[in-house]
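Late entry, written up from scratch paper. The run itself happened at the end of the previous shift, but nothing got recorded in the book at the time, so transcribing now.
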Amino acid sequence: MRTVFVGAQEKPNGVSSYTYNLAAELNRKGFKSSVLSFGSCNKESEYKGVLIKQYKCPGGTMTSIPVLYWKSLPYIIKNRKVIDIVSYQTTTFSILPSLIVRMFGMKACTIIHSLAEDNPKHSYKMKFLLRTMMRFALKFSKAIITVSNTKAKEILDRYGEKCYVVSCGVFLPENRLLNTDVMKRYGIKSGKYFLTIGRVDPIKNLEILIDAFKQHDYGEFQLVIGGNTDTEYGQSIVKRALGCKNIIFVGMVSGDTKEALLKDCMAYCLVSSSEGLPIALLEGMSYGKIPIVTRIPAIQEVLEKHNVGLWSDVKNVEQVSQNMKAVEMNYEKLKSHGNSALDIVKENYTWSQIADKYIKLGKEL
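Output as recorded:
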């Protein structure tokens, strides 16, 4: 069963890490997979043994993805005898490409990580357009995958369409030397900081995290934020943190740098308004870190039934601040939350387990 994943970005960060790492684990299990991505140039490369065929596509994600879907069709059709499944990483733009793929005898599916219309950065008109496009796309999609039971229910309630669930996952950390100087370069104190890493976007509520940190007497403790701040929203949160030297922006991080930050933090923070199933949270949990999280369905699905995590309501600065203070004052007592979080990942969210679910689904399509 060979799968071609279509729609990843140039680097295996954020949502794209789902595509790259699932493909890598399928390869490891003997199910040949490859990734067709969009980026700044045409090239071929590898990621953990997976062939990455990149197409040069213009503009941002919203313009690059539909261009990629059409540009990649000749390659897919040419190799149709050795491709079983074509997995499109968004639903909205995949209607005609997936129909063409099926006409040539291959199976096709699409993946929904989150619903774009829930993002507060969009205007009312844009949200209406996104809902209309999604409703139309779902009617013509043969097999729809999403990353959590919560999101599947949300799609069923909102659009009346059923989805398969193949969750996000993580690789468990390896005990090895890391080649990075990130701690020294930014003056980060090992074991004395809160961490959040990911897409810098209004839906992540980073301004709430910053206000919560600044509001309490943080003393020697630090807040470290990883992600690209070269956007209007990114610059607004950098400005919001001015005057507080204990809030540190480290930019986009990956590889050893990301691992070092995860390894040495006290707690991992995710205070979003909406999520699909956050890989970033699972990564923090895989390092046994205390989760500081908002009470939203996708995070509740992962943690709440296990009584794990320090919780706050969405955009409640006071509650987030109190949770930070609790970690600072009672770390030894609360680190059991981190140990339990690691157990949850081991039992439910390793890439090996997720790949097994995908293989089972692929045989059913």
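The chain has a mean pLDDT of 94.
(Scratch paper discarded after transcription.)
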